[in-house]
Amino acid sequence: xxxxxxxxxxxxxxxxxxxxxxxxxxxxxxxxxxxxxxxxxxxxxxxxxxxxxxxxxxxxxxxxxxxxxxxxxxxxxxxxxxxxxxxxxxxxxxxxxxxxxxxxxxxxxxxxxxxxxxxxxxxxxxxxxxxxxxxxxxxxxxxxxxxxxxxxxxxxxxxxxxxxxxxxxxxxxxxxxxxxxxxxxxxxxxxxxxxxxxxxxxxxxxxxxxxxxxxxxxxxxxxxxxxxxxxxxxxxxxxxxxxxxxxxxxxxxxxxxxxxxxxxxxxxxxxxxxxxxxxxxxxxxxxxxxxxxxxxxxxxxxxxxxxxxxxxxxxxxxxxxxxxxxxxxxxxxxxxxxxxxxxxxxxxxxxxxxxxxxxxxxxxxxxxxxxxxxxxxxxxxxxxxxxxxxxxxxxxxxxxxxxxxxxxxxxxxxxxxxxxxxxxxxxxxxxxxxxxxxxxxxxxxxxxxxxxxxxxxxxxxxxxxxxxxxxxxxxxxxxxxxxxxxxxxxx
Length: 491
Prior knowledge:
Elements: H1 8-12, E1 13-18, E2 21-28, E3 43-47, E4 50-54, H2 56-69, E5 83-84, E6 99-104, E7 110-114, H3 139-158, E8 168-169, E9 172-173, E10 178-179, E11 182-183, E12 187-191, E13 208-212, E14 228-231, H4 238-271, H5 278-310, H6 321-353, H7 363-371, H8 374-386, H9 405-435, H10 441-452, H11 454-458, H12 474-489
Antiparallel strand pairs: 1-2, 2-14, 3-4, 5-6, 6-7, 8-11, 9-10, 12-13
Helix pairs in contact: 2-3, 4-5, 4-12, 5-6, 6-7, 6-8, 6-9, 9-10
């Protein structure tokens, strides 16, 4: 039993929380290696105060453990994370690294128990080390880091040296990223690795950062410890994400301001008995659903997505009941919005196809618009509460289990039906115009133009952004987000 432990991740990293991304300054071993230190068939990583050259097999096992030790607290809290046992930090090598498990005592102190190697064998999916994760979906990021380390080793063994007489910073795996030989006073530019983004949005376009080789052939030192270090602070896609999210909020704000007069007028019509007609009632409920969806979405977007990007203070803590309730309420209001767009399409379709016979009883529309969204919201909550990996933490807004389709299916179905309604309405209008024995093409054009006014009313414009491009230049994806956010907010 160990009374204390030297937290390897603290020794090796300085963390600053910015939203869902942890900016980590990796601290590694100082080394005076030049080209003369390169060893064939061995790969270099950082361990303690020295760079270590390991065989391919040992390198894969060691670097995967380093990927685990560098995981931020939001992925594995300190009170659950396996740490390097105190007193053994500088006895670690390529073939052996000792980890200890924390145990909280009743008096509030923490003790650490040395673990058997099989307890932290990352090649075994049943190993105890995987039980320390808050969300099992985050293990995918760990495995990605491990695969990248193995690819880095292959790169080290296959890439020829710069020069036999040049003083360089050696090719190495710093715990998160691979760096090639770099001449003194020059920089190595690489892309921010995907596996460092946990829970938050990944940058749309790859972000580059540089690591400088200082004289005489040293990677930068962390000032307080004189260990090698890599500054990943530039990997935070803060400015780009913030601008995009502010654009989304602004679009919703404009929509709410434009909707307020229409909603006020429709509510005043309700007070007038002569104007209590089904058509106005349908419009009023659609306006109310859009307004509620806009208000709830702005609150959700600001508190849970935008605020963590611009401030370290959070008004709503992840993992709380209020946080999860707000997300489910957001999905309910969005689904209700889709259902009322469907109700508008269904009502107008029945009105035109049935020769303008207006339906008086609207109970079925109330059940579809306000009642039906309760079903997917309840099903989603139950699935996430009992079966979701995100049930123990987070606010359920970035799940990987596919349960979001509980909301997506009825929304997509409503859009598909509205497209059918729109096409049939155009067909019926053309037939009725032909029946009047008019041969003026302008009449058809006016009818078609008038019908296309229904497109935003039915929500058919969302079909434009239903497919998110996965390939092509990153500027296309950036443009997709802006078009999607503007169409969504300015409906």
